[in-house]
Amino acid sequence: MKKNKFITVVSLILFLFCAVSMNVTAQNKYTIDITGSKYEVKRGHLDLGGSNAKGETIEVNSFYLERNGKPFIPVIGEFHFSRYPHQYWDEQLKKMKAGGITVVATYVFWNMHEFKEGTFNWSGDLDVRLFTELCAKNGLEVLIRVGPFAHGEIRNGGLPDWLYGRPIDVRSNDQVYLYYVNRLYQEIGKQLKGLMFKDNGPIIGVQLENEYQHSTAPWGFTYQDAPKERTVAGRDRKIIQDGVGINNLGNEFSDLGHDHMKTLKKLAIDAGLTTPIYTATGWGYATIVEKGSIPVMAGYAYPFWTAGNSPSAFYLFKNIHQKPDYSPVSYDVNLYPSLAAELGTGMAVTYSRRPRVLGESFLPMMVRTVGSGTNGLGFYMYHGGTTPSIGNYFFTEGAGLHNKSYDYQAPIGEFGNVSSGYYSLKLMNYFLKSYGGDLAPLYPTLPSTNDSIKPTDTSTLRYAVRGDGDKGYLFMHNFQDHLEMKDLVGLKINVATKSGMITFPETGTFTLKAGSSAIFPFNVNYDGVAIRMATVQPLCRFTNKNKNYNVMVSVDGIAPEIVLKGQQKVNGVKTVIRNGNTVVICSAGKINDFEINGVFFLVLPKSEAEKAYLVSEAGNQKMVVSNALVLDNDGKILMVSNNNEIIDFSAYPTVGKVTSVDGKVIKGKSAFKNINNWQINVSKVETGIKLIQADNSHFVLKAGSLDLSKVNDVFITFDYRGDRGICMMNGELQTDDLYTSKPWTIGLKRYQEALKTNDMYFYFVPMQKEAPYLSYLDKKVLPDFSDKKSFLEVQQPKISVEYKVNIELK
Fold first, then answer.
1. CATH number attached to the domain at 75-439
2. 578-632, pLDDT tens digit by residue?
3. What is the separation of C-alpha 31 from the centre of its chain, rounded to a whole number of angstroms?
4. Would you say 723 and 810 are in contact if contact means Cβ atoms under 8 Å apart?
5. What are the boundaries of each domain within the chain?
6. Rounded CA gap, 700 and 360, in Å?
7. Fewer CB within 10 Å: N-end or C-end of the chain?
8. For 133, what's the count of Cα atoms within 13 Å in the CB-facing half-sphere?
9. In this structure, what are the phi and psi dihedrals at residue 91, rounded to the nearest 5 degrees?
């Protein structure tokens, strides 16, 4: 009897073990069928598109954009010219281009340009024409957001103060309001005359209004404890909300809203603002120009306008074309492509709500969004800045936001300093620039496991495929905001296509590490090379001296292989024959340089790919890999290095000679035929500035002798724990920092003249034990208040020099 009981117990244990094992196996092996994937593209139904004097065209169909009849996916970066000193616009635009941006979006804030009624200012930092011309000079196109209402965390949402209190129904077809709007549009049209796409200019798009009949801003005229008055038409007061969100109320005034948006488009065209693309906010039941604008979408995983730190749905794959984020929407989704305008690469914070947005969150959101079917990425913000002021009259929105800083935790910050998110986003931006035409017509397919995934699910693989039934791209990531993810191990994905099953990987399994992402191609053809599948991610393609180059990225945890269809000639790397196909076996975590049938391939580890930049003109491009920023600079290359006098870089393909007047050039050794290594040494520069700590909360900067002739900038970084930091000079607030745990960095270049005769003061305010924002801070940085009511800790500030070196590749 005892023996039987023992056998029973053992059998039960074995059964449970097998059941658990089978469950784990089932969770780690996935299958998706794309054989039925197709989408019927509608054409000719939209009042959009146009041509220029060269005969080039931009058209819009129901699923993607076309340039000269070929699909393309724009990569749009938001940069507000009025929030950055005009002397440095050119350099910052070069950084955006180096990051893979193809279109710059920017607001024209009405209240800055017409601060006094009837007097327009288009000079200095408000010179929209100069900004647009610099975009063109740097090969960037432009999407002008002309308002009249903008929001953008600007006072009154951009409406001038002088409108307040008048018997005018703003944001409506009130005839007096339209008179002023028309005057604004006419002035913008005069400034931008000749710069439209039709005139061979860079402006390919105009955004009309913003979040119309969805969101609003408070008027700057208010009183403490008083209800907020809103910049909104009277009829719309009951349907609008703070920030971006879902509207389940519908819109009983939609007919009037459509009429207003249609009127705005007519006024814009009458003012000369004629472009092939018009956009309007599409999320949250906002109102668009029906069949006359693309409804653009948004995604904010770390909003300041809602309370709490709950994981969002913006990292879960979906058919974003059919079910846009912040649905329901006011338009027929089958008529328009899915185009993003505001994907949260960063976030503003308020005094009481301080979400910290890590750079690691940027790329996974884009992998999810593109994999879900969007055919245009728009980053808000891509480049931060500083909100202007007149003395201590602030143009910022009066809702507890920074009075000056608009750093936004963006890829490029308030002072032009880049964050970790800048580098990782390049992997997506470069991919879309090179392979977007291949991807754009492909429709999303979701796996059967997708519907059951919730934001809190950390064990089920998040993935989707975009394909046409046979060819396509596999998208996946392992990230979720506000959650710690774990490595997903033992993964295998089967993709059923019309030409047979594609398995990732072909042999064995892979690990998708916490926080990582991947985009893998299958049944594609790159420059005549037929690829059955690859476990490396395409980064970019280019030509140099009539030779074709493709650069790929290997992902840590996934064995990098390229399976070529049939037997193909490969030089420079190990290959095997598997199932009649040639398999390129790359070395994991290393650089791989090889040639397939006369086409050159380079596989870089992710850490190296993030440091890679495409430079020079089309047809003669090169890839430069460096820890320094690598910027195209009028036929030369500008390298910007933070606090490092030794700049190492590699060139692919090889260059014969490197020259520089700014430093000593040394040629290094290379283990690769098509890559050579170089080093530039510059002389160390002493700043000559003094930063004096007056007490535990005050610092005084004396920089009268600051000389930036041999460097690009000098930065001061404060790593502190407290309530906020304040920067004052000449009695005026220069910038400010609401503590989120991110170190506070201030660049001195823009202040160099003022610093000759003025000291700069830094003041830090202690954090209070009952502060409302503490729940937004990472527990690791929360102080132990004990019996104290406040806390302030300021570590020794760091002063760093940003070097600049001009080089020529020959």
1. 3.20.20.80
2. 999 999 999 999 999 999 999 999 999 999 999 999 999 989 999 999 999 999 9
3. 31
4. no
5. 75-439, 443-610, 622-685, 690-802
6. 34
7. N
8. 9
9. -65, -40
